[in-house]
Specification:
Layout (H helix, E strand, L loop, with lengths): L3 H7 L2 H12 L28 H21 L18 H8 L8 H8 L20 E5 L3 H13 L2 E5 L8 H4 L11 H4 L16 H14 L6 E2 L2 E9 L4 E8 L6 E5 L1 E4 L21 E4 L13 E5 L5 H8 L5 E5 L6 E3 L9 H9 L3 H15 L19 H15 L9 H4 L11 E3 L2 H6 L4 E4 L3 E4 L3 E4 L4 E3 L2 E4 L13 E3 L6 H5 L17 E3 L13 H21 L2 E6 L1 H16 L2 H4 L21 H7 L8 E5 L5
The structure holds NADP nicotinamide-adenine-dinucleotide phosphate.
Length: 640
């Protein structure tokens, strides 16, 4: 075991002080001088909890003394259990207030629930639903959101079945197995608040480790036996007479269509599931090998081959650095370059002493997760707000322009060998108009390799042996990798859903998917979406918090159905219209809605249908309770 000073130097100071104060009851550790509020307009992530100079030294010294005496007095082979809220020697709210620098915007309910020490504030309630009404729930998808919903239903004691197309849990983390695949949100805030893990290897975990995490979650909570793997839901039709959903499912290994009936249908299908491959002229004439990033074929040899990657989004920016050294040549086709947030730790492992501290000091990893959660909750929200009076195509406000200038400075330093690339790698659109990626220098290093060519002239057409650019250059290649994204705005596009009167959901929506509170659609009773329209995050948070909020809300809807013996529940058109006006106006006031730049958040007519425009606290508060005036309720038990 190392001495306390080593651990303190490796730790994140603010959450460490919270954990020590909670264990020892020593309030001097959470002295207000050690709690600097995170500057919402700052471009850099806070280091050392925002402390510097003598105050930093003093905080470190206090933490070292406290940790030293704690370690001296415990049996390190058998440390005491994780503290819970009731056993805390200082009120949890006081510690949270210290963690956030007494930030008034930190919703106490959200922060307590996200800490994961407090059953009362937990993401969903722990009591069983009284079994007045037996409901059977069908969930489509066993990814991050389907699994979280399943866990909530299990706690509530409600019967459910999950239909999953793939042969494993984990959703996108099963289908995306391309080289370099890893999180671009910090592990801790991406993991569930109710299933925290203290032994992650990396700060931004690899796809494989995350897949194991979901497998572990499903197995530990005994959800796996409730999943029908390899089974696709082809259609879902609402039955007016029984207020149930009739599902036609098919086993993908050659099964015949089967019929199922459920009282409530929950869509957890995700939006990043159906690959989008642009219809380039001559696309199908190519005689080499072809794959989409989400349909990776490891039998396709890339070593010493001539490869083209089309696209420079979140998938391409991981694939390109991972394969650049082993391929013979690499042509990277960029339409518009990505903005990236400086993140030196992006590929790094968590230091050994830091991992050790997480297992030695009870509660520390939970405070660390809450700190990460809080930093990402603030995110870059303020910097991506659009000022209606700001006139520039490169930025949407004065702070957004400052953000841009700082990032451009950072990019410039990375192209010493090829400054001519700068004109192409500095995006022309405002920061925040699309999702930001992570920058640890690996993208710039890859683009400057001798065997790598950044192609910005656009794809003209494709022939048997390669790609012609729009300007007439030719790239002869053996393999084309489409990293061109997904049909993200076609919500629930893989299932033929029919509601009241046989109304088709895809026709009702057209290209403009809308759902009341992101969850429910008039005319489609007892259908609830997790990860529905307007749940995508651009400048704050991790998708996991959105999932946890919606799961809590759907859990509440189901409790209402059971407690009041409702046969159906659907929102009113008026409530949906009101909600839609609110989020649409909100999106127009943010960089991703105000800027004149396409992205996968927008439908074909350019309207943002994917993204949530407000803060996470707003979403959290919206999901805390059901406003029954907005819902149409039908009484009487359905007859499944
Ligand atoms: P994406 O971000 O939508 O990127 C697609 C890329 O293909 C863009 O560069 C786009 O250019 C380009 N493209 C699309 N159509 C094109 C066309 N007709 N001609 C030329 N280029 C074209 O897709 P993605 O990279 O698969 O990522 C999608 C989302 O998945 C991410 O935003 C993220 O939420 C998630 N994801 C997460 C991770 C992670 O956490 N580790 C990893 C991968 C993906 P334009 O930008 O000009 O449209």
């Amino acid at each position: 075991m190392l001495d306390a000073k080593h651990y303190v130097n490796a730790a994140e100071l603010r959450p460490l002080l919270c954990a020590l104060a909670q264990l020892t009851g020593d309030r001097s550790l959470i002295d207000k001088r050690f709690a600097v509020r995170v500057d919402r307009e700052s471009i850099a992530l806070p280091t050392n909890g925002g402390l510097a100079g003598e105050t930093l030294e003093e905080a470190r010294r206090r933490a070292t003394e406290a940790l030293h005496s704690y370690l001296a007095n415990i049996d390190t082979g058998n440390p005491p259990p994780e503290p819970d809220a009731r056993g805390s020697r200082i009120e949890i709210d006081e510690l949270i207030s210290f963690l956030t620098g007494d930030d008034p915007a930190a919703s106490p309910g959200m922060m307590r629930a996200q800490l994961g020490m407090d059953e009362v504030a937990a993401t969903w309630r722990q009591q069983d639903i009284a079994p007045q009404r037996k409901l059977r729930i069908g969930i489509i998808g066993a990814g991050q959101s389907g699994l979280a919903m399943a866990r909530a239903l299990q706690i509530a004691g409600v019967d459910f079945v999950i239909f999953e197309r793939q042969e494993s849990v984990g959703g996108v983390w099963v289908s995306n197995i391309y080289p370099g695949c890893r999180l671009d949100t910090n592990n801790l805030s991406y993991s569930y608040s109710h299933f925290q893990k203290s032994d992650w290897r990396h700060h931004f975990t690899t796809g494989g480790e995350l897949w194991e995490y979901y497998q572990d979650f499903a197995a530990t909570n005994d959800i796996t036996p409730r999943i029908r793997f390899g089974t696709e839901v082809e259609s879902a039709t609402f039955q007016e007479d029984s207020a149930t959903w009739k599902l036609i499912t098919r086993n993908l290994k050659g099964g015949v269509p089967e019929q199922e009936s459920v009282d409530v249908l929950i869509s957890a299908v995700g939006v990043l599931t159906t690959p989008k491959v642009p219809d380039f002229k001559g696309r199908d004439s190519f005689q080499g090998r072809v794959m989409h990033s989400a349909e990776w074929d490891s039998t396709i040899e890339l070593k010493n081959k001539r490869v083209a990657v089309i696209g420079t989004g979140a998938s391409a920016f991981q694939i390109v650095p991972a394969i650049a050294e082993s391929v013979k040549s690499l042509a990277v086709f960029q339409r518009s370059g990505p903005w990236m947030l400086p993140t030196p730790l992006y590929h790094e492992e968590i230091a050994t002493e830091h991992r050790e501290l997480m297992s030695l000091l009870p509660g520390y990893h939970k405070w660390l997760r809450l700190w990460d959660f809080w930093i990402t909750t603030i995110g870059k929200y303020e910097l991506t707000k659009a000022d209606p009076d700001w006139r520039s195509s490169e930025s949407v406000s004065e702070p957004n322009q400052r953000f841009r200038d700082a990032l451009v400075d950072h990019i410039r330093k990375q192209y010493p060998a090829h400054p001519e690339l700068l004109e192409h790698v500095v995006p022309k659109y405002p920061v925040g108009a699309k999702r930001m990626l992570r920058d640890n220098g690996s993208w710039a290093r890859a683009l400057q390799q001798d065997n790598v060519d950044l192609v910005t002239d656009g794809v003209g057409h494709i022939d048997e042996r390669g790609i012609h650019t729009a300007k007439g250059d030719y790239h002869q290649v053996d393999v084309i990798i489409y990293s061109t994204g997904f049909t993200a705005t076609d919500f629930l596009g893989t299932v033929d859903v029919k509601g009241r009167g046989g109304q088709s959901l895809s026709k009702y929506w057209g290209d403009d998917a809308r759902a009341y509170n992101t969850v429910a659609i008039p005319g489609f009773p007892n259908l609830f979406c997790i990860g529905g329209p307007n749940t995508g995050l651009v400048a704050v948070g991790s998708q996991t918090i959105m999932t946890e909020c919606v799961v809590r809300y759907v859990d509440e809807l189901i409790r209402i159905m059971v407690a009041d013996n409702l046969r159906s529940l659907e929102p009113s058109e008026e409530a949906l219209d009101r909600f839609s006006r609110w989020v649409d106006e909100g999106n127009l006031a943010m960089a991703w809605g105000a800027a004149d730049e396409n992205s996968w958040y927008r439908n074909r007519s350019g309207k943002v249908t994917v993204s949530w425009p407000f803060t996470l606290e707003t979403f959290w508060n919206m999901c805390q309770s059901v406003n029954r005036a907005d819902w149409i309720e039908e009484s009487g038990e359905g007859t499944p």
